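User: These chains co-purify. Model them together.
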Amino acid sequence: MGKSLFDKIWDKHVVKSIPDGPEVLYIDCHLIHEVTSPQAFKGIENRGVSLFRPKQILATADHNVPTLNQHLPIKDELSRKQVQMLSDNCARHGVELYGLGHRYQGIVHVIGPELGVTQPGMTMVCGDSHTSTHGAFGAIAFGIGTSEVEMVFASQCLLQSHPKLMRISVEGELSKGVVAKDIILYIIAQLTSGGATGYFVEFAGSAIRALSMEARMTICNMSIEMGARGGMIAPDETTFAYMKGRPFAPQGTEWDRKVAEWKELYSDGDAIFDEEIFIDAAAIEPMITYGTNPGLGIGVTGSVPALDKVPDENEKKVIAKALQYMGLEAGKPLLDMPVQHVFIGSCTNSRIEDLRMVAGVIKGRHKHDGVNVMIVPGSQQVAAQIVEEGLDKVFEAAGFVIRQAGCSACLGMNEDKVPAGEYCVSTSNRNFEGRQGAGARTLLASPLTAAAAALTGKVTDVRELI
Amino acid sequence: MKAFTTISSRIVPLPIENVDTDQIIPARFLKATTKEGFGENLFRDWRYDASGAPVRDFILNNPLYEGQILVAGKNFGCGSSREHAAWSIADYGFKVVVSSFFADIFRNNALNNGLLPVVVTDAFLQKLLNLDRMDTVTVDLAAQTITIDGTGEQEGFAINGYKKTCLLNGYDDIDYLLSIRPEIETYEQSRK
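Assistant: Joint model of the two components:
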């Protein structure tokens, strides 16, 4: 029987199997940040052991950093202490840190790929659920808790049970105005927010193969939002072209040797999946969420479900609770509903292509007076590139505010928050209650749909503007 | 980690599905650098209103309910990988969380902190959620059973044998992983 992409990588990383237990899985690359690592460093120090492989760890500060005046000391005392602790811990344990002010600093899932740290065939972990992003390169990448961060510190390994495997094939061509974010929001709406729990997902099919690397990252990034441990896509020429020449990518003859190896990373024709799902790309329209989990999404021209049409009693309760929080009415469309904020950023959609997409819609236009628009580039490198390409001028002319790199209003750990009761069209990944600030109401959408809302001040079908 | 023993307790019902870790512990409380004290902010924004006053009809504010077993709707612990969610539930005093399924990362985080996630069928979950507040439930890890004491109704639950041994004895994965460092080094050599 043939092997899946997942198993080709998994099998190579099993150090040993514990009888009636999990497997000891070797981790090639461990990414860390300031929020989920301090207790792990402390744990290791309390045990009196050293980090096993500090050179296989890369750190950055992203979750809890301000996006204004990053050259100044952080005002919030707890945040300052947490970021300082990361610096101290990295210095003490010999871990490479791209902290605030470093030209490589940025959201951990943006910098890994852009630096060429993320590579096909790897196992990668990070104390962050969106680690699934790196699966876009054909890596097994997944989020872990802080105890597991400590395990990787101690041994460069984790105890893991083999997950079930699901393949989602998206076939055909996307229609105008439909991008990667819409594909993944559509898939999550079909599967529900817990629909892939227990699975690792491979995304395949002609519509996936046609995507750029940054678009593939958007798809894999949100695998966790349907409960999947991770998502992955087989590497191909698009992957290799994206990686070539990046600072940590292999060079010279080593590059050729690696590419030959990476070309073997695909699911064999007769590989078996526990679950197979087929999606028609042409059926997808620009998506937007109306509820308080990422599975509660609809096409932008659609209507919020009418409660009497929801057959399942529990699901009806979930939707009713969500609509109450969101201040929305069952059975009504979202189109033309006023919004007060647009947030363009996060590990889902803050890369250069996302920002080019936004600029393409708004160039020569100005934002609506009633809406605040914030753009937070995913990394220092993305921030530098928007200046190099002159996109900053386009954003400024449109009345958008450009901030410095970080997770920002995706999770509202810093001061970038949406006020209670107000609506935000956001390119981020979660619309949970209070995610963008206590009482904030989040509508998840693509960078194109966010750009359209910025121009009109309301939920808009971007296809009418492009 | 403390060893897990059999728990008999009243339950705290939370009949809500898809309880995400942002609800369990909002991000603004993740600035702490220790594992202690998260219990006071467990379910913060459901438990307290914007002015900080307790929300009367939230279950944790109802003095009639208390216990070491939290029973919640399906897909409990979805969202962020923050282990602070498991820390806050354990710090509040719960020893067991029951649901019809858990998000993967939360389940691991709970197990790594001696908080036992128990998966039951939808039907049994409904029975638990409908119990009288004085009814008690017994969770026996060694036997892998959960029992409604009053009626004797019982379900078995699954747990990985290795994890079960760890919990019963208070071992953690790090002790084990440290003990096999030489094997890990051998593995690394074999890949070169």
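Chain A touches chain B through 69 residues (CB under 8 Å).
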